[in-house]
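Data card: per-record layout.
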Amino acid sequence: MGVGAYRPARVVPNSEIVEQINSSDEWIRERSGIVSRHWAAPDESVIDMAEVAARQAMEHAGITPEQIGFVLMATVTHPYQTPAAAPELAARLGSTAPAMDISAACAGYCYGVAIGSDMVKGGSADHVLVIGVEKLSDFTDPYDRSTAFIFGDGAGACVIGPSDTPGIGPTIWGSEGTQRDTITQTQPWTQIRKSFRGRTMEEAAGGPPLEQAGEPEVGEAAHWPTLAMAGQAVFRWAVWGMAPVAQKAIDAAGITADDLDAFIPHQANIRIIDAMIKQLKLPADIPVARDIVTTANTSAASIPIATTRMLAEKEIPSGGLALQIGFGAGLVYAAQVIVLP
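The structure for this 341-residue chain is written out next.
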């Protein structure tokens, strides 16, 4: 029924990234298509960003906080194990609706769309607010040559509500947990806990390596967890595994590629996007989201950010059909055809 998006004010060009990873702007562009990304301010949280996108989506949909029946927030960068971010967001919006976070990485938004659609169909909620939001700059190692240039921050949202005709096609989704190590957090939170043993948190945060602090059983200092990725493995999986998933979503919706008005894939890599276009044999003139050039990979936020921009710039038509697909850590994936608001 409506969409919204938020990009943080700070724009970070490749030139700010390259020195720490011994790279170049040209190398990053050729490898990923990324020219710049947005980073949130140090005191800007995923909830702050989600609120802006959510209010925009609600205004676009023409609904009030009292009409929200459920809040689903897809994120893997809320820095609290508990409570979830979604209930706080709901409270900021003036809603007491049930709310929960979804941890499905880059597929989180499409997971949320599927769950929200089923909630409305099943009668458990009239209107579901779905948000994809990430502050990946908090979990990116600036010295990791394989990931430092990939990620950005941002938020996107949509409102799902009742309709006389189907507006969301069947979701094709799944997981391949045997490949969980291809995209992963570098260490569990429990490993960090070991670094605090026998010291205050302040001492552990600024103190010497653990082997110097009398804790040889740990071996070395536990560092803040960041994201690690086996780039080539992920690239192959996305290029060869996701196009068939997207095709199944087209088939399940009862349409053909020629019926589509837009293709809005997760913004992971420009080469992945181009390869999927070829495999799906999409029409040459179909609008395709390539927001990765200026937003980088914003994980769960990438699809709604692109959708909002394309609609605002009239690159895609209101009421048209769009194929969207998300895929990422887990490994998890989800795709569906939607009617654009």
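Known properties of this structure: The CA atoms of residues 142 and 148 lie 5 Å apart. Residues 208-221 have pLDDT under 50 and may be disordered.

See the next section for split statistics.
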